[in-house]
Design goal:
It is a single chain. With about 230 residues, the chain is mainly alpha-helical.
């Protein structure tokens, strides 16, 4: 079995290397993506390979450990959400070094885990930039994808958004804004609550909070949720 996983991992890396281009590799920096080990494969091609591989949790673990940017993106599509442990989520969040891997895992994998809301709560005050961003990228993803949770699940996290809004680090700040805007798009009640939060932030003496409040207000006022 180990040999099979070794072979599948190597086959995936070979495929990624063959589909990488210098143009895509050089383009990462333009989007603020820091990836010391990158083949330069488009997301479209990463998703095409993921479709061929299918869900395989053991393979996902090995892909992550290679340290290659595209292999870690691939992990989001190959890992099995129901087999994802809290410890694996913690380790991957600690080892993230760019926003693209962070957001892809949150948007395509972590938000399908039964540990998702607990991880938002645990990560929201962490010092590491991408662990903290993961809390709010995951909250944004839950707001957009989780149809089962009630409004209380999101309302109780609005104070955490306000507290995190003073963090001036760019990737945290943008993650917090994404979470606030996504909560406000769920329904009319959450939209009103998000507007209130955004209005307070927009009047804050802290520059990052003002930016988040104004950014959220622009979108929430322009795009109110559709009536259910």
């Amino acid at each position: 079995m180990a040999q099979d996983i070794d072979a599948r991992t190597q086959d995936a890396l070979t495929w990624l290397k063959r589909h990488g281009t210098k143009r895509h590799r050089d383009g990462l920096a333009r989007y603020g993506i820091v990836a010391p080990k990158a083949f330069g494969v488009s997301m479209r091609d990463v998703q095409a390979l993921a479709k061929r591989l299918g869900r395989d949790h053991a393979l996902a673990l090995r892909l992550w450990d290679t340290g290659w940017y595209e292999a870690q993106l691939l992990t989001a599509f190959v890992a099995e959400p129901e087999r994802l442990t809290a410890a694996q989520m913690d380790r991957w969040a600690r080892e993230m070094d760019n926003w693209a891997v962070c957001d892809t895992l949150c948007f395509k994998l972590f938000d399908r885990s039964p540990h998702a809301f607990r991880k938002v709560t645990q990560w929201k005050t962490r010092k590491e930039e991408f662990v903290k961003r993961s809390a709010f990228a995951l909250l944004a993803s839950l707001a957009l994808h989780d149809k089962a949770s009630d409004d209380t699940s999101f309302l109780r996290l609005l104070p955490a958004i306000e507290r995190a809004a003073t963090d001036e680090r760019n990737f945290v700040k943008k993650g917090v804004s994404w979470a606030l805007r996504s909560i406000g798009r769920r329904n009319a009640a959450l939209h009103a609550a998000a507007i209130d939060t955004s209005t307070r932030l927009a009047a804050s003496p802290a520059a990052p909070a003002r930016w988040i409040g104004r950014d959220a207000l622009r979108e929430l006022q322009r795009r109110p949720p559709k009536a259910s």
